[in-house]
Amino acid sequence: MLYLDNAATTRRKPAAVYAAMLRYALLSGGNAGRGLNRLSLGGIRAVIAAQEAAAELFNIENESNIIFTQNATYALNMAILGSLGAGDGIAVSAMDHNSVLRPAALHGQYTVARADSTGYISPLAYRRAINEKTRLAVCTHVSNACGTAQPVEELIKAAHTRGAAFLLDASQSAGSMNIDAKSLDVDMLACPGHKGLMGPMGTGLLYVRDPERLRAVIVGGTGSESESLAQPETMPDKFHSGTLNIPAIAGLREGIRFVLREGAENIGKHEKCLADTLRGELINMKGVTVYGRSDTGIVLFNINGLESGNCAAALGDGIIVRAGYHCAPLAHKALGTVAGGAVRASFGYFNTKSDVNRMIDAVYKVSRDTRLRQ
Amino acid sequence: MLVTTGSITTAERLTRALYRSAGVPARVIHTPAEIKKGGCSYAVKFNEENESAVRRIIKEYGIKVRKYYRESYSDGRFVYHAVP
């Protein structure tokens, strides 16, 4: 099997991730924050250790302001719906995922920054989308569809200049790029735990610089201030209602520690190197169209005359790529692939050069066969 | 002596910070009934001689705590006095 769908989830994880999950599931199992027994405290310690690791990775000063969620979608929903009130506007970008676009559409008052045909959002286009009603501006760091990286430093400045808070969707960049929350001056950062951070599925996180400015949209039992019907303001309890997935959070901590050891920049370089090799071959291949920029470990392409789903199927069962819209309909509109989507190959840290060669051969074979049939 | 916190996570984080940064032993306890409003509430207990170190670490780490209490024993029961 050739797994090239790391933008959806990194399938292979460091061994320490599985070991931590097994350890917590088998030997612990207490409900974190529910009492002072040894098992419950063990759960709380796992949460704190994961917060510490994430704070180190993203250079976050107050680790208490890191919340664990089921995935990036939950984190983004919590950040978007908890920030906006009646009359508030939200600015999004055309390259955003539906996990941003749908809550923005649910809120109703949103503006969209346009992207160029390579999936790039210029600071000028972003500024144009921010108006006097904009309370929150969001942008994906790296497009999940085509891998184009956005100039987030300038986008954040544009949002702040106009008085809007900025939420960074680091779903494709966390673990593959150095992200310094402090120097970037982000107000909120959301990302999944199961992609570049190498954690298990069912994990994500949200960093909130000013928690008092964010309303909790999910409330309930936190194991604290139980006498009150009001949600506690204490972090992270304010956003940690209900039982946490401690085995997964413990696994996520080990994933982040792996990224810290290897270096996010090194991981990103490796992924980009593999993607660039594939991109270089596909660009020169007859009957193949490649989209986006050469910024990250993602390559988006189509074989002319073949619908993207059929193309992915034609590559064979052994090659796992993702065809279609990638939950980013406006991105495909910008890229000119709205008719049938495209095929995405996304590399991870555990992919090798021989994986790239196998993919090149497979695409060549399908494109040649397609041409011969035409 | 003890300091009350808003959550068990905060309390546990404080004990870790105290031990790691200053070698101060401390433990998380349920907030005594005499000073809590009811429900789930947690505090960190430590020796009075470490008060200045505890206050320093809390400030240094930006840990949000509520109130400090001195504990004494009188007429067969513990009594708690809030201190600024």
Q: Roughly what percent helix of chain B?
A: 25-40%
At CATH level 3, the topology of the largest domain in chain A is Aspartate Aminotransferase, domain 2
CATH architecture of chain B: 2-Layer Sandwich
Tally the beta strands of chain B: 5
Number of helices of chain A: 12
Instruction: Round the Cα radius of gyration of chain B to an integer and report it.
Output: 12 Å
CATH class of chain B: Alpha Beta
Using the alpha-carbon principal axes, give the shape of chain B: globular
- Give the neighbour order of strands across the main sheet of chain A: 2-8-7-6-5-3-4
Distance between the termini of chain A: 29 Å
- CATH homologous superfamily designation of chain B: Hypothetical protein rpa1041
Class from secondary-structure proportions of chain A: alpha/beta
Q: What composes the largest sheet of chain A?
A: 7 strands, mixed
Query: In this structure, how is the largest beta sheet of chain B organized?
Result: 5 strands, antiparallel
Question: Radius of gyration of chain A, rounded?
Answer: 21 Å
Can you describe this structure?
The complex is a heterodimer of chains A (374) and B (84). Chain A has 374 residues and is of the alpha/beta class. Chain A folds into 2 domains: 2-8 and 264-373, Aspartate Aminotransferase, domain 1; 15-262, Type I PLP-dependent aspartate aminotransferase-like (Major domain) (Aspartate Aminotransferase, domain 2, 3-Layer(aba) Sandwich). Chain A contains 12 helices and 13 strands. Chain A has helices at 15-27, 38-58, 72-83, 98-107, 123-129, 152-161, 181-184, 246-262, 264-283, 308-314, 329-335, 353-373; strands at residues 2-3, 66-69, 89-93, 110-113, 134-140, 165-169, 188-192, 204-208, 288-291, 298-303, 319-320, 322-324, 342-346. Chain A has a 7-stranded mixed beta sheet with strand order 2-8-7-6-5-3-4, with helices on both faces. In chain A, helix 4 links the parallel strand 3 (89-93) and strand 4 (110-113). Chain A is globular, with a radius of gyration of 21 Å. Chain A starts with a strand and ends with a helix. The mean pLDDT of chain A is 96. With 84 residues, chain B is of the alpha+beta class. Chain B has one domain (2-83): Alpha-Beta Plaits (2-Layer Sandwich), CATH 3.30.70.1530. Chain B contains 2 helices and 5 strands, in the order βαββαββ. Chain B has helices spanning 8-22, 51-61; strands at 2-5, 27-30, 42-45, 65-74, 77-83. Chain B has a 5-stranded antiparallel beta sheet with strand order 2-3-1-4-5, with helices on one face. In chain B, strand 4 (65-74) and strand 5 form a beta hairpin. In chain B, helix 1 (8-22) crosses helix 2 (51-61). The longest helix of chain B is centred in the N-terminal third of the chain and has 15 residues, at 8-22. The mean pLDDT of chain B is 93. Classes of the chains: A alpha/beta (374), B alpha+beta (84). The interface between A and B is medium-sized, with 26 and 21 residues.
